[in-house]
Design a protein that fits this description.
Elements: E1 3-7, H1 13-30, E2 35-39, E3 45-48, E4 55-57, E5 62-66, E6 77-79, H2 85-88, E7 94-98, E8 109-118, E9 121-126, E10 130-132, E11 136-141, H3 153-165, E12 170-173, H4 179-190, E13 199-204, H5 207-211, H6 213-219, E14 222-225, H7 227-233, H8 236-253, E15 257-260, H9 274-286, E16 290-292, H10 295-298, H11 303-319, H12 323-334, H13 340-354, E17 359-364, H14 368-375, E18 382-386, E19 389-392, E20 397-400, H15 402-407, E21 414-418, E22 426-427, H16 433-446, E23 455-461, E24 464-472, E25 475-476
Parallel strand pairs: 1-2, 2-12, 5-6, 12-13, 13-14, 14-15, 15-16, 17-18, 17-23, 18-21, 22-23
Antiparallel strand pairs: 3-11, 4-10, 5-9, 7-8, 7-11, 8-9, 19-20, 23-24, 24-25
Length: 477
């Protein structure tokens, strides 16, 4: 795994802090980088079950949703944490309730249909038998606009404390409806000092988010297609279409696309279904940057096997990914005249493919040049050598670079390496052999490059960006 997501819908700050300490220990022992993503709760509606007794709902029965949280949850009455539901829904609307999954076919989630609005209460007909267990269940009203802020007060508190304390690399913005949601979140975190570099990934979870997708993509640093909620807001036959369109737009914009809910069956089983395995492969072939595993690794019985199998499927799919068609399509989409950086990035990829290079090495400070190279999906790995920069806030000096290196981990085909700050990113000489040798040694240790392999190097020489080729660690030609 390359990014650890901390979902604050479940567990308190101490629980997540303990998990983060485990992660730090694993990073230290494996000597592998891993980024941290904080997932907000957002305007999530919940059923409150204070007694935590199991609640059985029977198909064709009736259950009332009430905002009166003083009531005891039962098979006939479910208290909810939102007093505006009765104003938002109408007869015939669909509501899903459950602790984990929402497909309407499981015994852990219920599919309800609104039959009557009675004051602040909503009367629903139960469409399938289910047993609800636990203290909280998520409630999702399909294709209903819930008038609550995307970044809740609780989210702001968690970001300001836990997020700042742990210098999160990514903020996953749940239930993003409009571009304004992303702008508001960015304005908020930009005032939090250490989080000014944190990237915002917009989670698209409903039809409203899809309707404003283009504007959201323009504002966000990346997109997470949350197919759990999206899959019940959309009719099943349309999910794949919107997924492919969204991933394509992310690819052309050069922004990471993340897909969720791929091997749900592995929560309880050692192997995925054939349909799930095919789904993962198709996500890779469509251009997805990353696969997000949730229940499978949070409460699943086989988390290690899940990561291993999904990784193997991704690797097989990448072997048959049609890079030539993708490259031409991307160049056509970018059009002419290209920006200077786009031209350098596409040229580096074209050169690497033509000479059958084993690796592309990119020296960068911001990480932007390396991400642009990865945008063209070269058939070989891109080693992003991030050179730290010395910065000051007039009170203390510090080096930047750690954020940029970890944030590269979510980009497909990009492998970051944090370099020694004594090596300049923008060399004034034609060869910066010492740092190149370190990068090649790192590549050899990782098994992605061998002695006499051809290597394409992208770096700045003075004010000029250049693409070079080498087949020996200390000689350009």
């Amino acid at each position: 795994m390359s990014v650890a997501r901390f979902d604050f819908s479940w567990g308190d700050a101490q629980y997540h802090l303990a998990t983060l300490e485990n992660l730090k220990a694993a990073v230290k022992s494996t000597k592998k980088l891993c980024a941290v993503m904080l997932d907000t709760v957002g305007p999530e509606l919940q059923v409150v079950n204070k007694s935590e007794k199991s609640i059985s709902l029977q198909a064709d029965g009736v259950v009332v949703l009430t905002p009166d949280q003083g009531q005891e949850a039962s098979s006939e009455l479910l208290p909810i944490n939102f007093d505006g539901l009765s104003k938002a829904v109408k007869n015939g609307d669909t509501i899903f309730i459950g602790q984990y999954l929402f497909t309407g076919s499981e015994t852990t989630s219920a599919w309800l249909e609104v039959s009557e609005v009675r004051g602040e209460d909503v009367v629903c007909v139960i469409k399938n038998s289910a047993t609800l267990a636990g203290a909280l269940f998520t409630l999702h009203a399909s294709q209903i606009r819930i008038d609550l802020p995307t970044l809740s007060d609780k989210d702001k508190e968690v970001i300001s404390s836990w997020g700042v304390q742990n210098k999160i690399d990514f903020l996953s913005l749940s239930y993003t409806h409009h571009a304004e949601d992303v702008r508001h979140a960015r304005e908020f975190i930009s005032k939090l000092g250490d989080l000014s570099q944190t990237q915002i990934f917009a989670k698209i979870e409903n039809v409203e988010g899809l309707n404003h997708f283009d504007e959201i993509l323009q504002e966000a640093d990346g997109i997470i297609l949350s197919r759990g909620n999206l899959g019940i807001d959309l009719s099943p036959e349309k999910v794949f279409l919107f997924q492919r369109a969204a991933v394509y737009k992310c690819n052309m914009a050069g922004k990471p696309a993340v897909v969720t809910r791929v091997v749900d069956s592995m929560t309880d089983n050692l192997r995925p279904t054939r349909a799930e395995a095919t789904d993962v492969a198709n996500a890779v072939l469509d251009g997805t940057d990353a696969i997000l595993l949730g229940a499978e690794t949070l409460r699943g019985l086989y988390p290690i096997e899940t990561i291993s199998i999904v990784g193997k499927i991704c690797a097989e799919a990448e072997k048959v990914f049609n890079q030539d068609i993708y490259f031409k399509k991307t160049v056509t989409y970018v059009g002419e005249p290209m920006t200077h950086l786009e031209s350098i990035a596409s040229s580096a990829v074209r050169a690497a493919i033509k000479v059958k290079a084993s690796i592309i090495i990119c020296f960068t400070s911001s990480g932007r040049a390396a991400r642009l190279i990865a945008k063209y999906r070269p058939t070989m790995p891109v080693l992003s050598v991030v050179i730290p920069r010395l910065k000051t806030n007039q009170l203390k000096w510090s080096f930047s670079g750690a954020f940029e290196a970890r944030q590269s981990l979510i980009v497909r085909g990009l492998f970051p390496m944090l370099a020694d700050p004594r090596h300049p990113a923008e060399s004034t000489s034609a060869t910066n052999e010492s740092i190149l040798k370190i990068a090649l040694d790192h590549g050899k240790a990782s098994g992605i490059v061998k002695w006499h392999d051809r290597v394409v190097v992208c770096q700045k020489v003075g004010d000029v960006s250049v693409v070079k080729l080498t087949n020996r660690p200390a000689c350009f030609w």
